[in-house]
Amino acid sequence: MKHAEAAYWDQFWDQPDVGLQWKQLAAAELIRTDPVLDIGCGSGLLLELLREKGFRSLTGCDIASKSTKILATKGLRALRCDVERPLPFASGSFATAALIDVLEHTFQPARLLNEAARVARDVVIVVPNFNSIVARLQVMAGRVPENNTPRKQHVYWFNYGKLREVVSSAGLEIEAERFHSFKYDHRLFAAPFRLLARARPTVFSLAFAARLRPKA
After folding, report:
1. Domain membership of residue 176 as a residue range
2. pLDDT at 152 over 80
3. CATH code of residue 162
4. Best exposed site among 64, 124, 136, 151 by fewest CB in 10 Å?
């Protein structure tokens, strides 16, 4: 099974980069300091962005060997790891561990959050919202929502309430958060859509980003 999963992601990363998206930009805003571990680093877009921002100690890990090869060509350090197993790093090795569109691919997201919190002081996550108004409209139109299609390889579905529940069950709490709103980079429409996303995140937010810390 793990061989098949690794083969799938190797094939996935054969495709061209889609470029920076909201998830990398939001995560970079929430990351305070290095060293940074990007768990499920993919093609290294977040690590490249952090390097441009002046971060120097950057490490990626991913189940796909293709991913580690891509990062090597970009001058970034990466190694293979299976997020369903204990991470191959000593406790407290990093200031920040990032999980960008990773938790929804795992059967036990709270366990992975525990591991991320073991190896790093801060944990920064991004997950898609499976109950957004876009998904609801797609269901009403008789379609399978895009985030729920098999090709996405999602096995754990989040909305805002479920995210907070999983974070709490891992012994963590949200310290800072961002909501992916419609037209988030539009000069006129960004502000009102951002307000809607904050007021009703499970309905109007397309994804959630958060920096986590151990419960006080």
Report:
1. 2-214
2. no
3. 3.40.50.150
4. 151
